[in-house]
Design goal:
Layout lengths: L1 H18 L4 H14 L4 E8 L2 E9 L15 E2 L5 H13 L9 H4 L8 H6 L2 H4 L24 H7 L18 H14 L3 H13 L20 E5 L2 E5 L8 H4 L2 E2 L1 H12 L13 H7 L4 E3 L12 E3 L4 E5 L3 E10 L2 E8 L4 E7 L4 H16 L6 H30 L8 H4 L1 E5 L3 E7 L4 E5 L6 E6 L4 E6 L8 E7 L5 E8 L15 E3 L2
Antiparallel strand pairs: 1-2, 1-12, 3-6, 4-5, 7-8, 8-9, 9-10, 10-11, 11-12, 13-14, 13-20, 14-15, 15-16, 16-17, 17-18, 18-19, 19-20
Length: about 525
């Protein structure tokens, strides 16, 4: 009898630890502290539990320019959280018999070509959306990032053949946006609708995402939308929205907390809408959340995870006690977001921000998640706050040291003459980069991406530093020149100055040859 009572007590305590919830007042306070700690103007947060919205609020301001309050209805670019929609749409086409995950891409896009002929022939639709192409992190992202370039979808399809692989096909996970752009084109060709039309009419409308749009340029009412913000030269400033519609299948969706929680409720209801309509077969929905590309779990994992990897448009892992977690993050210049579901707890957490500091959304998500999983308070705010401060200090120290050396090189008479390095440099996929000198200073312009303009400063006899005019990019780079026997430059490569540079500024993938 005593044993039975003990078992009942243990079960009750166990149930309490899983269903315990952070209080509204406590969460309000955490979010406000998060705003201050990470210098984020605005954050909106939503929590769905057992089919009910238990929290949906905005804190701070949607823009430092207008200082209007951020609320739960404020529209934010969810960025790569769009990838789950792209894969859901492809799965719908499979249900209709128009597509299979293991179709070769060239069945639908005959002109598709990669560097390796065998990989080109074997590359499947599944490979497009599982980050296992063999290309490096962010390979080719400069074809859509930053905004203002003239690359289109056809250019992306044509140019991926020039991107050098960094690993063998299907051997490693390496995040790639351009393959999702190609996947969006597959969807267009098999469905007859543009990616944007399909997402809005076939998914968002029946699911009940009434305020969301598939692209920033499709938002007609911008009365309650964020401005993007970033840290530029040590200060957080408001910057223009930056996203090319070319990359919408990789990250174009605009949404808010209520709509993202509606999306979560739909997904955790086995892809059945509130009206009882099934949008995807059980078989295909199950396939979306199956591990495709494994990732390493670190020793001493915070959530006692045993596995981690990527499914079809989703990251997957297990958290305390074997609860399956389905999640994704997203980042644009000036905003980052996080979307997390633990289906067997019927729990979803949405965090949308208007400043590009991932530590902010991690602080909130992990604190909320811990309260439902029964972890003791692990003070994520302090943990991530200290880490973020150290990381910024570290990167700033690198930049300071580089520009200190630049100042010392100004009067070095042994540096190459302007005639030795100026001219047009061409990369097979990115096009022309022009380096010029006006008699006083050097400048650099990227012909197909004209927003990438800056000054060129000597660092040593063979390396120069590019300081971009748009300081919000935080992506200054080294230019490493190669010279012939006469001392004239024949080509150049680039590498970032500080690791804080976003991987989509993939200048390191350029192989520049001097053409005149």
């Amino acid at each position: 009898m005593q044993l039975n009572r003990l078992l009942i007590l243990i079960l009750c305590l166990s149930c309490f630890s899983v269903t315990a919830q952070i209080g509204e007042e406590q969460l309000d306070g955490l979010i406000k502290e998060t705003l201050t700690t990470f210098d984020v103007p605005g954050i909106s947060v939503g929590i769905l539990k057992d089919g009910e919205i238990v929290y949906a609020k905005g804190h701070g301001v949607r823009s430092l320019t207008n200082e209007k309050d951020m609320n739960e209805n404020t529209l934010v670019g969810v960025a790569s959280n769009s990838k789950g929609f792209t894969c859901f749409a492809l799965a719908m086409m499979i249900d209709e018999g128009k597509l299979n995950w293991d179709d070769k891409v060239r069945q639908h896009i005959p002109e598709f070509q990669l560097k390796d002929a065998w990989v080109t022939q074997e590359f499947t639709v599944r490979d497009l959306v599982t980050h296992r192409s063999g290309m490096g992190l962010g390979a080719g992202d400069l074809m859509f990032f930053p905004e203002g370039n003239d690359f289109n979808v056809n250019d992306v399809i044509s140019n991926v053949k020039y991107l050098e692989p960094e690993s063998s096909f299907r051997s490693e996970f390496s995040y790639n946006n351009n393959m999702f752009i190609v996947a969006g084109e597959v969807l267009k060709r098999v469905s007859g609708l543009s990616w944007e039309e399909f997402i809005e009419t076939k998914i968002m409308k029946p699911v009940g995402m009434t305020n969301s749009k598939a692209s920033y340029n499709r938002v007609t009412d911008k009365s309650n939308i964020i401005d993007a913000h970033t840290r530029a030269d040590g200060k957080v400033v408001q910057i223009p929205h930056d996203w090319s519609p070319t990359a919408n299948p990789a990250g174009g969706i605009m949404s808010n907390v209520p709509d993202m929680l509606t999306w979560a409720a739909f997904l955790m209801n086995d892809a059945v809408t509130k009206n009882g309509d099934r949008l995807l077969s059980e078989k295909q929905f199950h396939e979306l959340w199956q591990l495709q590309t494994p990732l390493r779990v670190r020793k001493g994992d915070w959530y006692d995870s045993n596995f981690r990897g990527y499914g079809l448009g989703w990251f997957l892992t297990d958290v305390k006690g074997g609860h399956k977690q389905v999640y994704h993050t997203g980042g644009l210049i000036g905003t980052v977001t996080q979307f997390t579901m633990i289906p067997d707890l019927d729990l979803a957490i949405v965090v949308l921000t208007n400043q590009m500091v991932g530590s902010a959304f991690n602080t909130i998500t992990n604190t909320v998640k811990d309260s439902y999983l029964g972890y003791d308070d692990r003070d994520w705010l302090k943990n991530y706050g200290n880490r973020n401060t150290k990381y910024i200090t570290y990167n700033d120290s690198i930049k300071k040291a580089v520009y200190a050396k630049v100042d010392l090189e100004k009067n070095n008479e042994s540096l190459p003459k302007p005639s030795q390095i100026t001219g047009t440099y061409t990369d097979d996929w990115f096009g022309n980069i022009i380096m010029s000198h006006d008699g006083k200073s050097y400048s650099i312009t990227c012909e197909r991406s004209p927003n990438l303009q800056g000054e060129l400063f000597p660092y040593n006899a063979t390396t120069y530093v590019v300081k971009w005019n748009n300081r919000s990019y935080d992506a200054d780079v080294f230019v490493h020149f190669s010279f012939d026997e006469t001392g004239n430059a024949t080509g150049a490569t680039m590498s970032y100055i500080a690791p804080i540079t976003d991987f989509s500024f993939d200048f390191h993938d350029l192989n520049l040859k001097k053409t005149n």
